[in-house]
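re the bet — no i am not wrong, look at it urself. input seq straight from the record:
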Amino acid sequence: MESNKTIVKSKSALQLFLRNDFIHSFIFLLIFILLLLTSCAGSGTQHDAIISKYDASIENENEHLAKGEQLNAELVQKGNSLKKAYSAADYKIGPEDLLEIDVFQVPELKTNVRVSAKGYIKLPLADSIEASGLSVGELETLVGKRLQKFLTEPMVSVFVKEYRSQQISVLGSVRDPKTYYATGQKYLLDMLSMAGGLAPDAGSVCIVQRPVKGDSGEKESVEKIVVDLDELLMHGSADLNIPIFSGDVVQVPKAGIFFVDGAVREPGEFPLKRGTTFTQAISRAKGKNFDASDSEMKLYRDSGKRGKEVISVDYNAVLAGQEPDIEIRDKDIIIVSSSTIKRIMNTLSGALNLGMFSIGGGRPF
């Protein structure tokens, strides 16, 4: 009799164990399916919401004041130490300049001559010479060659007695953008200072556009010189304080921005520095979260058309050198998706650590 009761109790315990085990398995499966469906359904909607949020911040743009103000403070503090003293070697002679020309031991040839509106001067024995666009040294050499027909090894000196008014435009993110009339040789920092310094939204580069004349003397093209203001102002690279000439246009573009969101440690917007790549952008957001999907990162880029261009990035392939590390452009949006499997495992791991589920007689596992 006792034996039969023991068998019955054992069967009941086994049935209870199997029933509990089935319930736990069912709960695990249900959680897995719910998380999977939530991830699939919410991913696209979440991405759209993030893009809309950043698009709105772009439309109401008033960003990067700190960076612009920092560069402007450096311009004020370091400007004097980085400015170059006037150099006749850099100066380009122009129309209406008044020149004093002297030939060693030939006082009869000493003369003051004003450059014509077309850029020419006329000298005894040397005839008509196009002086505009030449440095003082270049003009001395040219006059000397002309006088070799009449003198043995003539030594010519040229001095600029009066400078013409030079037109130099400073545009973009400066406090007072306009065309300035300057005299004497000016350098980049001189012109930025004349324009009142950098505006709060100034970027970290400056572009100098310089007209280039062809053989006919007419402007044929424009040379663009890019100056890194970080290197010039923050690191004191005085060689970047280049001479500025009449007709130059100094352009200071606004600072660019990019956005990183999703499964990263510090999502948000960041100032764009020239040459920033995709992996560097992720680093600016303090790296990926545990549940980040390395193979499902998206870069949304304004294509100039309706909608945005979507670029898929395999982060691991980029790190391995199998795919290029894309250079980030102004207003790019990077979204790092969460890995469904990683998130489920993380959720279940947390549940197990908290003792949420138990087997058999209620012992947590």
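see?? The longest strand covers residues 292-302. told u. also The chain has three domains: 48-63+256-347, 66-87+165-252, 98-162. so pay up
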